[in-house]
Design goal:
- By secondary structure, the chain is of the alpha/beta class.
- Helices cover about 40% and strands about 15% of the residues.
- The chain has 2 domains: about 140 residues, Aspartate Aminotransferase, domain 1, CATH 3.90.1150.10; about 250 residues, Type I PLP-dependent aspartate aminotransferase-like (Major domain) (Aspartate Aminotransferase, domain 2), CATH 3.40.640.
- The strands form 4 sheets. A 7-stranded mixed sheet has the order 4-12-11-10-9-5-8, with helices on both faces. Strands 1-2-3-15 form a 4-stranded mixed sheet.
- The relative contact order is 0.16.
- The site of pyridoxal-5'-phosphate has 15 residues, from α4.
- Pyridoxal-5'-phosphate (PLP) binds next to α4.
Length: about 425
């Protein structure tokens, strides 16, 4: 069956044919046959250079042979035990040795779980209820995180989805990333009731927005001064630019860190961790309940360990340089076609916007999404797959070659030519 038929079949099984909303796009998504290295292949016989990379985990490229072998070897010894195994210690130890601020951690199965548990832990540890999150920040699909700005910027948030109780929204205040005055006002109003500020250190779910100089340091300082915890959600940024979380590159210590994606090597994973003082509050050593049938399962642990072991020996500067080359190429093409644009990127992740400026949430929301989508579609016709949504992020993997980058820039030139007609 081709993608169209599969979409029809899938639509009677799953809402809009997909098992996570970002995977749907008009008129219907392609259905994947297989993926290897920098390429993803659909059931219709098309091949794409992939910059979506499963929304982040596949930094080594698809189906990395070392990770695949590790999964097969472990699968033969058992898929899941429901009892601890050495595989957890191997991965946990490697993460602790390469993450300066993680003394203890717990594995979960997704970034969503990781942030949900981190938020509960922060509330329990501080004995406070209020969480501050950033407008446009995404921390997964649980109730504490599906909150957007309320009626005023200093009031509690409102549910961003029906089904999230107003009562939950009344425990979350939505702040503005890169706006120190706004965060100061929130602390002035709620100071000693704030359990934690949770933020992506680099915003990666509204396209890419980089922190203004000093903003992250400011968050560290204001949380510390008010006895609130700082949670860095590094589900995207962990191990993406160096063999460490991003916090170690900038030298800022959060109280809790969440990770996922890359550290599972392509298998479902989440992690929350921090100082042993805080982490010891987690059950059963402490009173904060958290659990998971599949948490720390040996197949994920083996995949994560194989991926991180490999990454440890890789030269990140090679893909950082390739990403830079790609961003420069995109800039040249868009300039040549006289399209006003901004490209935000750091290390191995980037996004482009058709806007005058894209330094904060409001500006990004004003970008021309329709043009982005039309270019996305045209690029597919030229064998390049970028995220379908303006508000996702492009990733470059260790499997992307210089040739891939050149082909992508040529494909963009042709695609923009078609779209602008
Ligand atoms: C920063 C961030 N946190 C949390 C999540 C949720 O992770 P998951 O999809 O594994 O539940 C995501 C997912 O994209 C994310 O980007």
């Amino acid at each position: 069956m081709g993608s169209k038929d599969l979409f029809q079949a899938g639509s009677s099984l799953f809402p809009m044919g997909v098992n996570s909303p970002v995977r749907y796009f008009r008129d219907y998504p392609f259905y994947v046959d297989h993926a290897r290295g920098s390429r993803i292949y659909d059931v219709d016989g098309n091949e794409y250079i992939d910059y979506c990379l499963a929304y982040g985990p596949s930094i080594l490229g698809h189906a990395d042979p070392d990770v695949v072998h590790a999964v097969i070897d472990q699968a033969e010894k058992g898929l899941i035990y429901g009892a601890p195994s050495e595989s957890e210690i191997r991965l946990g130890d490697l993460i602790r040795r390469s993450s300066r601020n993680i003394e203890m951690m717990r594995f979960a199965n997704s970034g969503t779980e990781a942030t949900m548990h981190a938020i509960r832990l922060a509330r329990a540890y501080t004995g406070r209820n209020i969480i501050v999150k950033m407008e446009g920040g995404f921390h997964g699909a649980h109730d504490y995180a599906l909150i957007k700005s309320g009626s005023g910027t200093l009031t509690f948030g409102s549910p961003s989805s029906p089904g999230v109780p107003e009562e939950v929204a009344r425990t979350v205040v939505v702040g503005r990333y890169n706006d120190e005055e706004n965060i100061k006002s929130i602390f002035n109003q709620y100071g000693n009731r704030i359990a934690a500020v949770i933020t992506e250190p680099i915003m990666g779910n509204v396209g890419v927005i980089l922190p203004d100089p000093g903003f992250i340091e400011f968050l560290r300082e204001i949380t510390e001064r008010n006895g609130s915890l700082l949670i860095f959600d590094e589900v995207i940024t962990g191990y993406r630019f160096a063999f460490s979380p991003y916090q170690d590159i900038i030298g800022i210590r959060p109280d809790l860190t969440t990770m996922g994606k890359i550290i599972g090597g392509g298998m479902p994973i989440g992690l929350f961790g921090g100082s042993s003082d805080i982490m010891k509050r987690v059950s059963p050593s402490g009173d904060v309940y958290q659990s998971g049938t599949f948490s720390g399962n040996p197949v994920t642990m083996a995949a994560g360990y194989a991926a991180l072991k490999k990454l440890q020996g890789m030269d990140y500067s090679s893909i950082i340089n390739r990403t830079k080359k790609l961003m420069e190429g995109i800039d040249e093409v868009l300039t040549k076609h006289r399209i006003r644009h901004v490209i935000n990127g750091y290390g191995t992740m980037f996004q482009f916007f058709f806007a005058n400026s894209a330094a904060n949430y409001d500006e990004v929301m004003k970008a021309d999404r329709d043009l982005y989508f039309r270019i996305f579609k045209a690029l597919m016709g030229h064998g390049v797959y970028i995220p379908p949504s303006q508000f996702e992020t492009n990733f470059v993997s260790f499997s992307h070659s210089d040739d891939d980058i050149e082909k992508t820039i040529e494909a963009l030139d042709a695609s923009v030519g078609e779209v602008m007609g």
